[in-house]
C-alpha cells in the first residue's frame, strides 16, 4: 500500500493550481488587441496623465526633463571630457532622443502588469494591452521631445538632412517593434520573478554605453571592430541602427576638416549610403517581427497565471 503524504490528503480546493491559458494563434491575439483598441487608447492617455499628475509643470516635464539631461551630458562629455566632436549638442541629442524612447518603454512596461494588478484580477481583457500602452505613451513623449530638439537646432542654426527625413519613420518602426517586444516579455516575466525590475534598471545603464550616443561609432568603435571582423557583433544591439540613422539625419556634419592644414579629415559619423541605412533598419523590422510573434506566444502562455501570482 502506498504511503499517503500530508500533501496528498489536502482538499483539492486548497492545493495550488497552475493555470495555462488557451493556445491562441498570433492572429487571434492581434484581433483581440484590435477589438480592444479603445481600451488601449484610454490606457495610453491614462499613462501620460498619471506620470506627471502630482508635478507643478505637469506634462511639460516630458519636454523639460530631456533638455536638462542633455545639458548634464553636454557638460560632462562635451565640456569636461572634451571628446572633440563639433556641434556636440546636436550629435548628442540625435542619439539621446532615441534612447529616451527606449527607456520610456522598457522600464515602465517591466512592472506594468504588477502595477495594474487590481484590474488584471477583476477585468477580462487582452493583457498584452498593458505593455503595449507603454509603447503608445513613449511615442507621445518622443513627439514632445522632437519639439525640444527642433528648438535646439534652431538655436544652434542647424538643420536636418531634409532629403533623408523619410528614414525617421522607418527607423522608429523598427524600434517600436523591437522595444515593444522586449517590454511585452519583461512585463510577463516580472509577474513571476519580481527581481527582474531591478535587474533591468541596472542593465539599462550598461545598454546605454553600448549604444553610440555619447561617443562616435566611426572614431571610437568601428576601427577596432572592422580590424577584427567583429562589426556584426556591435549591431546585435537593436538600438544602434536607429541611433546611427538619427545621427545621419539630424547631425549633418558628416566630415569636418581639421583646423590645421595637412591634417586628416575628422570623421564623426559613418559615411554609408542611404540604402545601407535603409537596409539596416529593414533588418531590424524583420527581426523585430519574428521576436514580436515569439514574445506574444510566450505572453499568451503565461498570462493565465497572472491573477494567481499577483
- Average pLDDT rating: 81
Q: Overall 3D geometry?
A: globular
Look at the helices and sheets and give the structural class.
Answer: mainly alpha
Instruction: Describe the strand arrangement of the main beta sheet, using strand numbers.
Output: 1-2
Number of strands: 2
CA-atom Rg in angstroms: 23 Å
Pattern of helices and strands: HHHHHHHHHHHHHEEHH
Please give the share of residues in helix. 55-70%
Q: Kindly report how far apart the N and C termini lie.
A: 39 Å
Report the sheet-strand fraction. under 5%
- Continuous helix count: 15
Instruction: Note poorly predicted spans.
Output: 1-10, 12-21, 255-260
Question: Could you explain the architecture of this structure?
Answer:
- The chain is an all-alpha fold and 310 residues long.
- The chain has one domain (24-309).
- It is built from 15 helices and 2 strands.
- The protein has helices spanning 26-35, 37-51, 61-80, 88-110, 112-115, 117-122, 128-155, 167-192, 196-209, 217-220, 222-227, 231-234, 239-250, 274-302, 306-309; strands at 255-256, 266-267.
- The chain has a two-stranded antiparallel ribbon.
- It is globular.
- The relative contact order is 0.15.
- Residues 1-10, 12-21 and 255-260 have low confidence and may be disordered.
Summarize this structure briefly.
By secondary structure, the chain is mainly α. Helix content is 66%, strand content 1%.
Amino acid at each position: 500500500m502506498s504511503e499517503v503524504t500530508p500533501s496528498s490528503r489536502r482538499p483539492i480546493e486548497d492545493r495550488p493550481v497552475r493555470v495555462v491559458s488557451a493556445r491562441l494563434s498570433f492572429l487571434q491575439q492581434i484581433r483581440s488587441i484590435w477589438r480592444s483598441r479603445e481600451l488601449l487608447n484610454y490606457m495610453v492617455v491614462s499613462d501620460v496623465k498619471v506620470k506627471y499628475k502630482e508635478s507643478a509643470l505637469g506634462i511639460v516635464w516630458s519636454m523639460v526633463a530631456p533638455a536638462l539631461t542633455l545639458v548634464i551630458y553636454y557638460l560632462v562629455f562635451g565640456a569636461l571630457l572634451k571628446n572633440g566632436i563639433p556641434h556636440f549638442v546636436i550629435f548628442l541629442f540625435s542619439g539621446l532622443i532615441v534612447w529616451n524612447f527606449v527607456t520610456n518603454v522598457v522600464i515602465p512596461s517591466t512592472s506594468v502588469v504588477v502595477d495594474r494588478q487590481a484590474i488584471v484580477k477583476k477585468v477580462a481583457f487582452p493583457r498584452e494591452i498593458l505593455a503595449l500602452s507603454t509603447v503608445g505613451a513613449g511615442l507621445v513623449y518622443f513627439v514632445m521631445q522632437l519639439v525640444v530638439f527642433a528648438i535646439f537646432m534652431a538655436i544652434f542654426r542647424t538643420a536636418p538632412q531634409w532629403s533623408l527625413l523619410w528614414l525617421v519613420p522607418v527607423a522608429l518602426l523598427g524600434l517600436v517593434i523591437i522595444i515593444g517586444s522586449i517590454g511585452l516579455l519583461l512585463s510577463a516575466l516580472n509577474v513571476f520573478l519580481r527581481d527582474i525590475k531591478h535587474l533591468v534598471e541596472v542593465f539599462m545603464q550598461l545598454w546605454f554605453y553600448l549604444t553610440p550616443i555619447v561617443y562616435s561609432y566611426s572614431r571610437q568603435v568601428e576601427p577596432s571592430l572592422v580590424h577584427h571582423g567583429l562589426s556584426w557583433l556591435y549591431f546585435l544591439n537593436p538600438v544602434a541602427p536607429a541611433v546611427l540613422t538619427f545621427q545621419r539625419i539630424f547631425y549633418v556634419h558628416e566630415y569636418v576638416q581639421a583646423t590645421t592644414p595637412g591634417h586628416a579629415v575628422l570623421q564623426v559619423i559613418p559615411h554609408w549610403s542611404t540604402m545601407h541605412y535603409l537596409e539596416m533598419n529593414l533588418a531590424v523590422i524583420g527581426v523585430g517581427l519574428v521576436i514580436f510573434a515569439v514574445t506574444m506566444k510566450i505572453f499568451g502562455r503565461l498570462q493565465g497565471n497572472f491573477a494567481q501570482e499577483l
